[in-house]
Structures are given as C-alpha cells and as structure tokens.
UniProtKB/TrEMBL annotation:
<dbReference type="InterPro" id="IPR011037">
    <property type="entry name" value="Pyrv_Knase-like_insert_dom_sf"/>
</dbReference>
<dbReference type="Pfam" id="PF03473">
    <property type="entry name" value="MOSC"/>
</dbReference>
<protein>
    <submittedName>
        <fullName>Molybdenum cofactor biosysynthesis protein</fullName>
    </submittedName>
</protein>
<dbReference type="GO" id="GO:0030151">
    <property type="term" value="F:molybdenum ion binding"/>
</dbReference>
<dbReference type="GO" id="GO:0030170">
    <property type="term" value="F:pyridoxal phosphate binding"/>
</dbReference>
<feature type="domain" description="MOSC">
    <location>
        <begin position="32"/>
        <end position="162"/>
    </location>
</feature>
<dbReference type="InterPro" id="IPR052716">
    <property type="entry name" value="MOSC_domain"/>
</dbReference>
<dbReference type="InterPro" id="IPR005302">
    <property type="entry name" value="MoCF_Sase_C"/>
</dbReference>
<dbReference type="GO" id="GO:0003824">
    <property type="term" value="F:catalytic activity"/>
</dbReference>
Length: 167
C-alpha cells in the first residue's frame, strides 16, 4: 500500500562541517537547496559530500520529517536558524521515519533501505540552538542506502514499503 508524502526541501553540501572536527572549530561549507537531485545506487546523491564516500555506506541519503522540525521549533523557540543547518538531505512530511528503520521502501522511483536513525551530534546545540542535541534524540531523521537510483524532486511523491524486516 502506498501513501503520498511531500518533499519540502532538498539540500546538498560539498563538504563536512562537523565530521572529524571534535575539539576543533566547525567548518562552514555552503549548503545548496536544489529542486531535484539524482540518487545513484550504492553511491549517494550527485553533488553531495557523501557521494561515493565508501562502499555500502549507510548514510548515502538522509531524511528528516517536517513534523519533527516543527516540534523542535516550538519546544526550543527556534527562530534564527536555517533548516539546512540540520545537515539532512531531504526534509519531507507525511511519514514516521523511525518506522522505516530496517525497511526497504520506494520513494518515487528511488528504492531505499532505511538503515538507522540519524543520531544528533553535540554540534547541534551550536548549529540549531541551545538544547537541540538532546531534543533531537529519536527524531533526528533516517539514514538510508540507495538500492535503486532515480531522481527525487520537491513536491508530492508516492512512498511504498516493499519489504518489512521485523528483527
């Protein structure tokens, strides 16, 4: 059974701001918002920092829900930040992303495996606002492998779970 979701934002960054930066200052690589992106099986998103990062990488694409972002904005009183600061590739609404951990699903023409929840890092308090690191627990998004490539674009998209793995 499929359901209709909405893709609100698609972000790409050519570099890492936080990865490997413990005890150092954040880098500030530009984040670009695009209308659509090419998803390449086993590689990632064309133009993103994780494209071709390593074989079988579990974060070839990251998703975050607008519902979680709205809750964080309300709880933390967030005003002066950019949604791209979450460092997730695709912000969408209409699905419980945590329920997709361990599932193979189709988003439009792209087939994904939901590998694990995105765990926030301590940098989120600096990037988003005080308290963001703790508040993002269990709602930081979903890391995915791309099993079959295609193009994802902003707007409505059909999602269908193809395989359920219960353990």
């Amino acid at each position: 059974m499929s359901q209709t979701l909405s893709i609100h934002h698609i972000y790409l960054s050519k570099g890492h701001d936080f990865k490997g930066r413990f005890g150092k200052e954040r880098r500030n690589h530009e984040v670009s918002e695009v209308e659509s992106v090419e998803c390449v099986a086993g590689k990632g998103l064309v133009g993103d920092r994780y494209f071709g990062y390593k074989e079988d990488f579990k974060g070839q694409l990251s998703l975050m829900s607008m519902e979680a972002i709205g809750a964080l904005e309300s709880e933390l009183g967030l005003k002066n930040y950019r949604r791209s600061d979450f460092r997730r590739n695709i912000l969408l609404s209409g699905v419980d992303l945590n329920a997709l951990v361990g599932q193979i699903f189709r988003l439009g023409a792209v087939e994904l495996e939901g590998v694990e929840q995105c765990k926030p890092c301590f940098w989120m308090d600096e990037a988003i606002g005080e308290g963001a690191f703790a508040a993002m627990a269990e709602r930081g998004g979903l890391r995915c492998r791309i099993l079959r490539g295609g193009i994802l674009g902003k707007g409505q998209v059909e999602m269908e779970v193809l395989e359920k793995h219960d353990g």
